[in-house]
Design goal:
There is one protein chain. By secondary structure, this protein is α/β, with parallel strands linked by helices. It has a single domain, classed as Maf protein, CATH 3.90.950.10. About 35% of the residues lie in helices and about 25% in strands. It has six helices and six strands; from the N terminus they run βαβαβααβββαα. A six-stranded mixed beta sheet has the order 2-1-3-4-5-6. A hairpin with a 4-residue loop joins strand 4 and strand 5. Helix 1 packs across helix 6 and helix 5 packs across helix 6. It is globular and about 50 Å long. About 35% of the residues are buried. The structure holds inosine 5'-triphosphate (ITT). Inosine 5'-triphosphate binds next to strand 3 and helix 3.
Length: about 180
């Protein structure tokens, strides 16, 4: 049994769906942990995982996700959580007047097997919509339109989001690793 550490129930729901589809069990350890401020999602995710090694029973994983807006030099990136709580989606829309709306989501999963930490990533490119749309999902989903789609992530249900998202790419890599290495017995 593998444990996911997160304070975010939406993340747990999305990831549990994927584990379910693969016939795997997932335990949720609901915990809010401190994140360092660093330039990239990989170091933030690694550092948070390392600090949990003596707190949570292995094997476990957590993930860090950031929204990077090209015309804002990657902002909010590592500040995604703070910016979502403060500026929110209306604030992001106000910052972006006109063209230059391309952006990406990056998810970095850090998995601790009791011995070492392994990382798996996923990137979803797209753009920030002109207005907030949709009822599903969470966070920046109402203002993010994936490449090749007309819908925001919020207008998609969980299955459609999971078929293309940053998170599902990173989690697919984790699941393949776990299956390949027979880590789930
Ligand atoms: P944990 O750290 O406890 O897992 P969190 O919600 O703080 O939960 P992150 O730091 O990874 O998670 O997320 C940073 C911000 O990005 C936060 O405001 C999220 O709502 C948002 N976010 C993360 N994944 C997202 C997704 O798939 N779609 C839209 N917004 C997302």
């Amino acid at each position: 049994m593998v444990t996911l550490v997160t304070s975010n129930k939406h993340k747990f729901q999305e990831i549990r769906e994927m584990f379910d589809h693969n016939g795997l069990n997932l335990e949720w350890h609901e915990l809010t942990y401190e994140e360092i401020q660093a330039d990239d999602t990989y170091s933030i995710s690694y550092d948070s995982c390392r600090k949990l090694v003596n707190v949570v029973k292995a094997p476990f994983f957590m993930e860090d996700t950031g929204l990077y807006i090209d015309s804002l030099k990657g902002f909010p990136g590592p500040y995604s959580s703070y910016v979502s709580r403060t500026l929110g989606n209306p604030g992001i829309l106000r910052l972006l007047n006109g063209p230059g709306r391309s952006a990406k989501f990056v998810t970095v999963v850090s998995y601790y097997d009791g011995n070492s930490i392994l990382q798996f990533d996923g990137v979803l490119r797209g753009h920030i919509s002109a207005e907030s749309r949709g009822e599903n999902g969470f966070g920046y989903d109402p203002i993010f339109v994936p490449e090749g789609s007309d819908m925001t992530l919020s207008e998609m249900g969980i299955d459609l989001k999971n078929s293309l998202s940053h998170r599902s790419m990173a989690i697919s890599k984790l699941i393949s690793y776990l299956k390949r290495n027979d880590k789930l017995k």
